[in-house]
Design goal:
This protein has 391 residues and is of the alpha/beta class. Helix 1 links the parallel strand 1 and strand 2.
Amino acid sequence: MSRFRIMHVIDSLGTGGTEEGIRKLLSGLDPAAFEQIVCTVAPSPQTEAKTGTRVISLGRSGGGRQMLVGKLKRVFERERPHIVHSRNWGAIEAIVAARMAGVRTVIHSEHGLESSTYRRQPWRRNVMRQLCFACADRVFAVSDSLRAYYAQQLWIGKNRMRVIPNGVDTKRFRPQEDVRHAARQKLGVGPDTLVIGTLGRLDPIKDHRTLFQAADLLLTFGVPVQLVVVGDGAERKTLEADMKTRNLLATQTVFVGETTDTVSQLNSFDVFVLPSLAEGMSNALLEAMSVGVPCVATRVGGNPELVEEGSSGLLFEPGDATRLAAHLKSLALNPQYRHDLGGNARRRAEERFSLHRMLSNYTQLYEEALGKKHGDSANPIYMPSARAWHQ
């Protein structure tokens, strides 16, 4: 039986949650059923380093937006994919190009929000999204919150989009006491020091400064703290400069940078904090939950869909450093509470957000979009056809 060829189109294949989601598909979908290719808008190597997948790059660079429909159309005509799956605003032109190239099935998904547009999308983007979504066979978001956001922005019914949550490899991301001991030994912290960690790209939308303010407050309460910031990005130099002004906290803070050993980092944490101003569905939050770390996250995006407040983690409003500090203090003073929250978080990741479940959802999406029969079509996870968009 011949395989179906899927072309994933994305702006770039660097570091980030959307990119990591694609890599999970590249290594996790059945290779006997699907051949996968990646097409990036920005320059990329010809092979994806982690999975060995072939990558086609359009090579766009520099400022300003260049029209890519023609280039994408030529790529699709040459490669002849059965499915084109574009992601986010940076690759949205692939929908039009795929239709022009006669691609059999076109799928688009939204995975998060940008720093510059998370409060409200520019009207030109809204118009473009409305047109492109109508041309796609399937459109989905990674969280119900993100789906509701675009339904409101685009003046469409929520039923026009569906939700496929992210998934985490719970076998890889798991509690490991020996790994925890080694990682904390490397940090030079004792058993009584509360290690507060965060993981993700250093970007204004992640709002690390609120975490810094809360950690400062925690030190004034007399709680011994070690702050660990894992990740890299455009905001790193600014955040490091900010930290130098914080005197005592600066001596208790480590900027790890980007690392492939996130399992060790997460195991070293006593508490994971996600202070973002906006989120789609955070892979870092899922990974921390899977490792069994109690999580404190902002009440935005998909965070409340992952964290059951008071059961598998705690929530606070964006920018509320005082409330975050209060949560951290309560966790610092109650190790059993931390243990209970972490255990519940681990179980929730296993039961609701496993990688196996995510891969099954994508397999179902692709098979149904191609018109194959599937066991449970009574409750489809995808949106109606483009014709239904206008009905």
